[in-house]
Input
Amino acid sequence: MITHERFREVMASFPSGVVVLTAFGQDSLPRGLTVSAFCAVSLDPPLALACIDKTSNTLPAVQHAGGFTANILAAGREQLARRMATKLSDKFDGIAWRRPGSAHGGPILEDDCAAYAVCTLRDTIEAGDHWILIGNVVEGDHLVGVSPMVFSRRGYFGL
Output
């Protein structure tokens, strides 16, 4: 059987985009975390999935809001990615964001993303120590000329 350390090394070799998943908590305050597991599931209907640790402080906000926003970070936003990967309570201090058109989505990180997808929560599937969130994409956009950031082998890179 593969060890946890070896599994992490193997999976870290697969480059992925860097996404800050956001939602609003019961107190209407923004919550967010960095995820590397985010992808399209279906074109018709437009579905995307994200994986989130069961111990995440953002998970209750996603459940409360009935959805989330996947902010695909722009190249050069390593500091923000690392900040959102912590359990800090003031992650959004000093960060420009706006509310999406959908009541179910979370903050859109205006100055920091190459693209975003606002999703209503369609399904939640338990998978080991994570939940797979499947969202119906109801809003989204991309910024022309803004390159996304990539994560591989514990490093951040621009395209």
About this structure: Residues 77 and 140 are 20 Å apart (CA to CA). The chain has one domain: 25-147. The first helix runs from residue 4 to 12.
